[in-house]
Specification:
With 460 residues, the chain is α/β, with parallel strands linked by helices. It contains 13 helices and 22 strands. The C terminus is likely disordered. Bound molecules: iron/sulfur cluster. The site of iron/sulfur cluster (SF4) has 13 residues, from loops.
């Protein structure tokens, strides 16, 4: 087994933890090895072995030859204390510490005023499978977890938000929920994006939140389903947050089907998981590896470690060579930020020529963008005109399915070749492309895509 790398900052939010072990120390699986220095959560070793390096970014551990499934248990305490001690963070997003999300430090005045725990089981990004598989295999644990969290947060009601297409998981939940009036199931449309917190609030409660508002403004907390399972493991099994369920998919030897790995030790490398899935497809090759979903994920390397927030690894189709053609970038709140879009233009060997923003993609103080009115596209004709004026041949977009449609309504008529940032991932996982209007034959040839999307077909 390779050395494992436990990053001191496991998600997008918070400060790096401070290591409490040093080079030469022996550690056991489950042992606490780093603690928060600000906003953050405890870190535990996912294997037994010897610490071979500690630096500002990570703790490197050489595993013992023999590994066991058992682990050092966290101390018993209240449910909240155990969630905190286990280092549970939001595992579907930025890695916000769960104990802070569900508790405000006031015993007599919980976070919610008889409000709602909304469980995000949308597994919204296309191609992912691990969240839904976890629910199919153990719906009862999800329900127990919702009750633990409801009690801590002061919620009267739990709602599980899940997409219609996940019939097996929906049926399993419905069977359990018929005896539980305090938790219900809400079906989400089978489209992207449905997993964003405000979308979950809107769908479940009918409340439209402004882009800068948190679910607490609707007396609700949104929590990812895998995070609920980690809370259950902490409370019932005294288990620290040391592993993760991960989907590996795409240009893998043997086919594009999803490989779901359960309880992957935090810190093992992307390379190890790709090899366990069968290895990269050597005949066709791959373009890049995306850590996370095709829309919001980031490109990564074979040597990068799995973290508490890694949901998926997707090996995309190879990039085709645009031979320096002029490319416009349309930045939207649903897809990659400008940096990610620029990276893709480079990988396509295009020349970045013009950058436009959807006018509803409002910039937040932390630099991210949120849509002012999701699902209500303002139209993209003006942006397409700007791309045309700038001499762009191609335009790369990151829009959701509805808004991709509005780009397609005018772009191709102006002679622009529209690429979606997810195209190569979608082709790699055999998913329809994000174009709800027919891709013209010429564009299909130019982009090397299969014209498999029918007029007005709902994508995903
Ligand atoms: S309106 Fe559409 S394209 Fe614009 S930010 Fe919102 S989802 Fe994205």
């Amino acid at each position: 087994m390779e050395n494992i790398q436990v990053l001191l900052k496991q998600g997008a939010v918070g400060k790096p933890c401070g290591a409490i072990v040093k080079k030469g120390d022996r550690v056991k699986r489950g042992q606490l090895i780093a603690v928060p220095t600000g906003l953050g959560a405890n870190l535990h070793s996912s294997i037994s072995g010897e610490v071979v390096d500690v630096n500002d970014e990570l703790i490197l551990i050489q595993p013992d030859a023999e590994q066991h499934k058992t682990y050092e248990k966290i101390n018993k305490g209240t449910n909240l204390e155990m969630i905190k001690e286990a280092g549970v963070v939001g595992q579907g997003g930025a890695g916000f510490p769960t104990y802070i999300k569900i508790y405000n430090g006031q015993e007599d005045k919980p976070v919610l005023d008889h409000g709602y725990i909304l469980v995000n089981a949308s597994e919204c990004e296309p191609g992912l499978r691990h969240n839904i598989l976890q629910i199919e295999e153990n719906p009862a644990a999800l329900l127990r977890g919702i009750h633990y969290i409801m009690e801590i947060a002061g919620a009267d009601k739990g709602i599980i938000a899940i997409k219609k297409k996940n019939r097996q998981a929906v049926e399993a939940l419905d069977e359990l929920l018929k005896d539980d009036p305090s938790v219900e199931r809400h079906l989400l449309p089978d489209i992207y994006p449905m997993g964003e917190e405000r979308a979950v609030v809107r769908e479940c409660l009918g409340i439209e939140l402004e882009p800068d508002k948190l679910p607490s403004a609707a007396n609700a907390i949104v929590i990812n389903s895998e995070t609920v399972y980690s809370c259950v493991a902490a409370i019932e099994e005294q288990k620290p947050c040391i592993d993760k369920w991960v989907t590996v998919r795409g240009m893998i030897k043997g086919g594009s089907q999803a490989h779901v790995f359960k309880n992957v030790p935090i810190g093992i490398s992307v390379r190890t998981l790709v090899e366990r899935a069968g290895g990269a497809d050597e005949d066709c090759g791959y373009g890049e590896i995306i850590m996370g979903g095709p829309f919001m994920g980031k490109s990564t390397t074979l040597e990068a470690p799995i973290t508490k927030t890694t949901g998926a690894l997707i090996l995309t189709r190879p990039f085709r060579d645009l031979k320096g053609a002029k490319v416009g970038i349309l930045v939207c709140a649903c897809g990659g930020n400008l940096e990610r879009m620029q990276e893709l233009v480079q990988k396509y060997n295009g020349t970045e020529t013009c950058v436009c923003y959807c006018k509803q993609a409002q910039e937040m103080p932390n630099g991210t963008r949120k849509c002012e009115r999701p699902g209500n596209c303002p139209g993209q004709v003006q942006n397409n005109l700007d791309f045309k004026k700038a001499g762009c041949e191609y335009v790369i977009i990151g829009n959701c399915s509805d808004c991709s449609n509005t780009v397609m309504a005018s772009g191709p008529k102006m002679g622009l070749k529209i690429m979606h940032m997810t195209d190569l991932a979608m082709m790699a996982v055999d998913h329809p492309l994000y174009r709800t209007l027919r891709v013209s034959k010429q564009v299909s040839q130019d982009l090397d895509v299969v014209d498999n999307v029918e007029d007005n077909e709902t994508v995903q």
